[in-house]
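Long-time lurker, first post. I've been practising inverse folding by hand and with some scripts of my own, and I keep getting stuck on stretches where the structure tokens seem ambiguous. Below is the full token string for one chain I'm working on. Before anyone asks, I'm not after the true native sequence, just a reasonable design that respects the backbone. If someone could post their per-position residues I'd love to compare against what I wrote down in my notebook.
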């Protein structure tokens, strides 16, 4: 089987969450978010190695959290100025034997082991990139000028999907996409918000697979409360 490596991003500060420590170390049911994510990656049974991006000053905290949650080989690398730069540092730290790369966010701590297996299987079947997505439930407007802005137009909802992580790629494709992306991005504003965007920019197809409610992103304390409810309802299944 091709060797599978994961870049688990945990180097964000969590400004929108507003905690006094990095968001990846915030506790959900007494366990850091990054530990929840790592334990589900390990439980999938298809991951061979993990590199975790961590904020400067917190590498040891993140290492302790991840190694307490999973028994895979783990390396920690300092993150960059943007998520894109952090992922690039993670990719560079994976061993060269890795043929399939998953990029996952510690901010999505409950993405299931079954989802991980589905994504890896999709890439092993021969496609370059597979990402989880869910339908958009709100009506989405493109905004025009003004403060507050005006609604410029309504996007066709049936053509929209919200995408999640983990995102899975053939390693050579992701490495090439990040090299090309690094030449374009100068800072947090010019960086892309997901890795699939870099593959799309190469003109390669990114395949959508069914995502899941459990893979919600923890952005604010409200999301943490929802994750807690999901854990209660899942009766240990997540
Ligand atoms: N320079 C960065 C920025 C983000 N991330 C990671 O990318 C994921 C998605 O980012 P987000 O949810 O936006 O987290 P933060 O950047 O921490 O949040 P905020 O934008 O509110 O500060 C998170 O797991 C985060 O740790 C990272 O590794 N390096
Ligand atoms: C990668 C991601 O989780 C896919 O939805 C998302 O784009 C991260 O965005 P953020 O702005 O860094 O939270």
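-- Answer (accepted) --
I ran through it position by position. Result:
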């Amino acid at each position: 089987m091709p060797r599978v490596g994961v870049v688990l991003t945990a180097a964000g500060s969590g400004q929108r969450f507003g905690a006094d420590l990095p968001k990846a170390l915030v506790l959900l049911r007494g366990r850091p978010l990054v530990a929840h994510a790592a334990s589900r990656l390990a439980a999938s049974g298809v991951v061979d190695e993990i590199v975790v991006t961590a904020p400067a000053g917190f590498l040891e905290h993140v290492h302790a959290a991840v190694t307490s949650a999973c028994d895979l080989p783990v390396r920690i690398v300092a993150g960059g100025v943007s998520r894109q730069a952090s992922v690039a540092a993670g990719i560079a730290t994976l061993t060269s034997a890795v043929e399939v790369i998953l990029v996952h966010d510690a901010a999505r701590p409950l993405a299931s082991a079954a989802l991980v297996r589905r994504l890896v299987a999709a890439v092993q079947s021969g496609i370059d990139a597979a990402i989880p997505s869910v339908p958009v439930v709100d009506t989405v407007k493109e905004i025009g000028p003004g403060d507050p802005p005006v609604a410029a137009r309504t996007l066709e909802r049936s053509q929209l999907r919200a995408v999640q992580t983990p995102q899975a790629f053939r390693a050579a494709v992701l490495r090439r996409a990040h090299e090309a992306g690094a030449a374009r991005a100068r800072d947090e504003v010019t960086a892309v918000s997901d890795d699939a965007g870099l593959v799309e920019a190469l003109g390669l197809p990114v395949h959508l697979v069914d995502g899941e409610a459990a893979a919600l992103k923890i952005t604010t304390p409200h999301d943490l409360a929802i994750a807690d409810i999901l854990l209660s309802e899942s009766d240990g299944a997540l």
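A couple of notes from the structure itself: Helices lie at 33-43, 59-69, 83-93, 113-124, 171-184, 195-201, 221-234. The chain has a mean pLDDT of 96. Happy to go over any region you disagree with.
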